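User: Sequence recovery, please. Input:
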């Protein structure tokens, strides 16, 4: 931003020099007309010489003149102040963007942490379900062995008190001969529900 201010100040000095050169040209033309100069070639050469002198004046020379000092004390200070103000606004915007980015990164970190926690819970639930399924399978196998050792009528009487899902699981785990004998001893209505559920699983 300091380099930009320096370049702007130099450009302003060049503009001042050009303005002064134009003023010299206009002044020379006015003097020539007032003095009644008749030689058409002398006026342009005089004006050109004045313009060359004015435009070749360095920014330092122009800056030392009272006009340049007045201009620098007003317009240049205004432009420099405007540049400083804009630089300050850019700094504020940059700081605001930095704060927003930091806040966003914090939120993203929290989200990632929460996702990791949920993934851990999901993995634990999946493991628990595997253990539950295994325990249920072992229980069904044990019930199938127990009911299979009973008389079909007794097994049907006790097994019919279970829910349809458990009855089907137990009968499926039993041998086909034992399951058929137990199912024949079921009440007609209960046997119909069991057969219907077996048909759904096929």
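Assistant: Recovered sequence (202 residues):
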């Amino acid at each position: 931003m300091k380099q930009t201010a320096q370049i702007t100040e130099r450009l302003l000095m060049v503009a001042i020099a050009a303005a002064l050169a134009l003023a010299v040209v206009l002044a020379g033309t006015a003097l020539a007309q007032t003095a009644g100069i008749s030689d058409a070639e002398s006026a342009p050469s005089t004006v050109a010489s004045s313009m060359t002198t004015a435009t070749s004046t360095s920014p330092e020379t122009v800056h030392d003149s009272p006009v340049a000092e007045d201009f620098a004390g007003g317009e240049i200070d205004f432009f420099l102040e405007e540049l400083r103000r804009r630089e300050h606004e850019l700094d504020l915007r940059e700081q605001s963007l930095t704060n927003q980015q930091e806040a966003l990164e914090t939120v993203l970190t929290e989200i990632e942490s929460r996702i990791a926690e949920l993934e851990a819970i999901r993995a634990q639930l999946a493991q628990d379900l595997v253990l539950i399924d295994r325990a249920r399978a072992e229980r069904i196998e044990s019930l199938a062995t127990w009911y299979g050792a009973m008389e079909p009528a007794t097994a049907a009487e006790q097994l019919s008190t279970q829910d349809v899902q458990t009855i089907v699981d137990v009968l499926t785990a039993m041998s086909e001969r034992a399951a058929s004998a137990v199912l024949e001893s079921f009440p007609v209505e209960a046997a119909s529900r069991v057969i219907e559920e077996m048909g759904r699983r096929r």
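Residues 128-201 form one domain.
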